[in-house]
Amino acid sequence: MGTRLVDRGSRPLSLTEAGRYFCIEARQILESFEQATLGTREIGLGRRGWLGIGFTRSAMYSVLPPALKAFHRKFPDVELKLFEMLTEEQADALHEKRIHVGIGRQVQPIAGCTMLLLLREHVMIALPSDHPLASCKAVRMEELADSPLVLYPKHQSANFARFVESLYRDAGLTPYVAYQAYEIQTAIALVAAGLGITFVGESVARLGRSDVVYRPLLGAGLAQTTTLAASFRTEDDSIHLRAFLDSFGLQLPSPDETIRKTQ
């Protein structure tokens, strides 16, 4: 050390000022080491850490809440970082490791990622409560030809917007897009204001509101379904990620099987 830590001339022996300082610092280092060891062990066992989840708004109306509840019950000390984002924004977030998993609608394959189907549901049409078709039990696409459309999400590569456009195309129609909304709640609010109609998954329709009615599609539209899927990096072997995916009640492939499948 280059200095005396103990005063050997005193009886009983005592620490010098430098010795007292060293003793305090050494104890703090030992305590920090013990905490680091414990924390590392806890993280390794999956009891601590964080899990980043990117999700589209409609996932909160169906599959996400029960999965979050189940995961939190099992890992109460793991921090859940939730990021609401468009499906189309999740690929970059996964590649940049800002999230561990993305939950999106009409998901397209992402390079280096595995995709798991979480939900397949029928498409519903959202109408203002005073719309001429609101009294119908079901609606044909042809009956929507003259109704202005509120299209979402507003993104240059929005898969759900393309899906909606395909409904019109398959019926031999050209949609009149009156408004484009960034996300689903804005689109529904515009419908409630009487500014147009829009399309949603049936899980969204179950929520209901007094100024909007939801009706199933008839004819060719009856067979149309929309999906929610989880995407995650294939190489990610996080205990928390696997546990979260388990929370959806799916039969998951092992990490080795997942890697082989995506190679």
TrEMBL record:
Residues 47-247 form the LysR substrate-binding domain. It holds the Pfam family LysR_substrate. The keyword 4Fe-4S does not apply. It comes from Pandoraea terrae. The keyword GTP-binding does not apply. GO terms for cellular component: protein-DNA complex. This is HTH-type transcriptional regulator CatM. One of its GO terms (molecular function) is DNA binding. Belongs to the LysR transcriptional regulatory family. Keywords: DNA-binding, Transcription, Transcription regulation.
